[in-house]
Structure formats: C-alpha cells, structure tokens
C-alpha cells in the first residue's frame, strides 16, 4: 500500500523546506540524499492530482520544480565536466547515476516514435539539450544512426560542455550539431525538422511551457512530429505537466505514463495541416483540440492513453 495523499504531500513539503534552506544545491552527499528521498516519494504510482491540491501546495510545487530543474542542470554540468576529462567521454557515460534511465527512456521514446513515424527522420531538433545531451546521444548511437541531431540550448557554457563530449567520435561529431539560441527566436529553421523533442524543463511553469508550444505550432512544418515529456501522479512534483488542451495546433497521437524508474511521461503529437498560427497569435483556441482521453491499454503496469477529439 502506498502513502495516503495527505502524508505524501506533507513529506514532499518537508523536503521542499530542506532544499529551500540549503546554501547550495550543487551535487554533494547531503543534496544527493535529499533528492534521492524526493524521487523515492514521487516515483511510486499515486492517485494524487496536483491540479486539485490547495493553492498553497500548488505554489510550493511550482517552486519545487524550479529547484529540481536548477539542481538537475548543476548535476549534468558536474558530470559533463568529469566525462569531458576523459579521452573518450562516451565510453564512461555509466559514471552518470541516471544513465540507465536515459537508456530506457531513449528506447521508450524510439518505440513510440516508430509507431507513429514512417521511416527514419533525417533531422531532429532537441530543444533544451543541456550540458549532458544524453537523449540525443542515446538515440543517435543506438536507434537512429543516419539522423542528424540539432541540439538547442540557451546556455553557451552548456553547449560547450556538451559538444566536448562528442568531439572524439568521428560519426557523432558530424551528426550532433549545437546551437546556442533561445528557441523563441528560431522561426523558419524549425520547418526543416522532421521531429522536434521538447525537454521537460524547457518552460518550467505553465505559462512559459504553453508559449514555447505555441511557438512550435506556428513554425514547425505541417505533419512534423513533436515529442514532449510530461509527468503523471506524484511525479508532477518533479516535472511540469503538459495538459492535452495546451497543444494547440497539434493532433495528439498518444500519451504514455511509465510506472518504473523512468520518471517522465511521453507525449507524441503531430503538427496539424491547418494553419493555426493566426488563431494562436490572436489567442483563439483551435476547434479540433484533442482533450479527451481514454486508457487504451495497460501493459506491465504502464499506462498508454490514446486521445480522441473533444
């Protein structure tokens, strides 16, 4: 039996207070232990619905997600620097504590993409690739050997660390391209990508996330695929949740909620043929928004939702 909702939320609030009191959330024995405890609380399946929690709890959750995002960036930078000190950094990826999770997530996302994308994409954009672009590395190395990955991050230092990891790899160094850009300033180029991945921590609050999605809806090519990461149940205390009705201009194909150590839910959507950007600019929602879901299948405890139009 799992926690009751009140106890779970109370324990998460206590961890938030601990994290808020720290002078630094850079990787350390204490910091790592606190975050490990937080993840252990949030990962087990839970019926908690964060949108129905009291306002002060939702405000705490927003702050906690930002702390988690900052800590994740610091941890990735820390390990990227360590890996970059080796002659062949990619031979030592297992030094990163969550590398196995990325292997599983990469396999999951590739399987979901393969179900909805015919053939192999030529160009993929990963938005918010960070200093340790493991998703791009895993997909490029294990699943999509002929695809070019364009990694976008707003932080130049993150891209410097990331690009250093693939310099020693003749193949990957040609297929992994790094752009130091705010994705909100990228327009026509977005039409060149067959698939766009949006990292979970690009837009760490609802308003910012929706702005990025609307921008992608305006500039991606019709028929292109959007892969997003969301969260389900108590995992929503760690990462932002994407509501299906936030995806204006996209047809949602499926949402998959893992129940194992892979934390993020995976959302896959297709840019519609309808030119919705005028409606987006005017703040008018499209009439074809998919916002009803039914659970299609339960396999090995994982939940797959197939969405139908309202």
TrEMBL record:
Taxonomy, superkingdom: Eukaryota
Keyword Transmembrane appears in the UniProt entry: no
Protein EC: 2.5.1.43
PROSITE patterns: NAS
Catalyzed reaction equations: 3 S-adenosyl-L-methionine = nicotianamine + 3 S-methyl-5'-thioadenosine + 3 H(+)
BP term (GO), one: nicotianamine biosynthetic process
Enzyme class: transferase
GO function terms (MF aspect): nicotianamine synthase activity
Record keyword S-adenosyl-L-methionine present: yes
Alphabetized UniProt keyword annotations: S-adenosyl-L-methionine, Transferase
Family named by the database record: Belongs to the nicotianamine synthase (NAS)-like family.
Main function: Synthesizes nicotianamine, a polyamine which serves as a sensor for the physiological iron status within the plant, and/or might be involved in the transport of iron.
Protein name: Nicotianamine synthase
Organism from which the protein derives: Sedum alfredii
């Amino acid at each position: 039996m799992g926690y009751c909702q009140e106890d779970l939320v109370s324990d998460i609030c206590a961890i938030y207070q601990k994290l808020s009191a720290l002078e630094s959330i850079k990787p350390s024995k204490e910091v790592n232990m606190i975050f490990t405890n937080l993840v252990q609380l949030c990962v087990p399946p839970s019926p908690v619905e964060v949108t129905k929690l009291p306002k002060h709890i939702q405000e705490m959750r927003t702050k906690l997600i930002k702390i988690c995002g900052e800590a994740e960036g610091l941890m990735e930078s820390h390990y990227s620097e360590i890996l970059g000190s080796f002659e062949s950094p990619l031979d030592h990826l297992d030094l990163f504590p969550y590398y196995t999770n990325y292997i599983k997530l990469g396999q999951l996302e590739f399987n979901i993409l393969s179900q909805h994308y015919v053939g192999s994409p030529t160009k993929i954009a990963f938005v918010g690739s960070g200093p340790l672009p493991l998703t791009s590395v895993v997909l490029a190395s294990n699943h999509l050997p002929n695809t070019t990955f364009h990694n976008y991050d707003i932080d130049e230092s993150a891209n410097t660390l990331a690009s250093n990891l693939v310099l020693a790899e003749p193949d990957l160094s040609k297929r992994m391209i790094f752009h130091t850009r705010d994705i909100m300033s990228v327009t026509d180029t977005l039409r060149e990508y067959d698939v766009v991945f949006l990292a979970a921590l690009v837009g760490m609050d609802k308003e910012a996330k929706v702005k990025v999605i609307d921008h992608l809806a305006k500039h991606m090519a019709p028929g292109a695929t959007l892969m997003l990461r969301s969260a389900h149940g108590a995992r929503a205390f760690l990462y932002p949740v994407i509501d299906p009705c936030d995806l204006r201009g996209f047809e949602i194909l499926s949402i998959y909620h893992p129940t194992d150590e892979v934390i993020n839910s995976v959302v896959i959507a297709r840019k519609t043929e309808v030119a919705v950007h005028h409606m987006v600019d005017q703040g008018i929602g499209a009439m074809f928004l998919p916002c009803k879901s039914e659970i299609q299948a339960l396999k090995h405890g994982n939940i797959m939702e197939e969405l139908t139009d309202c």
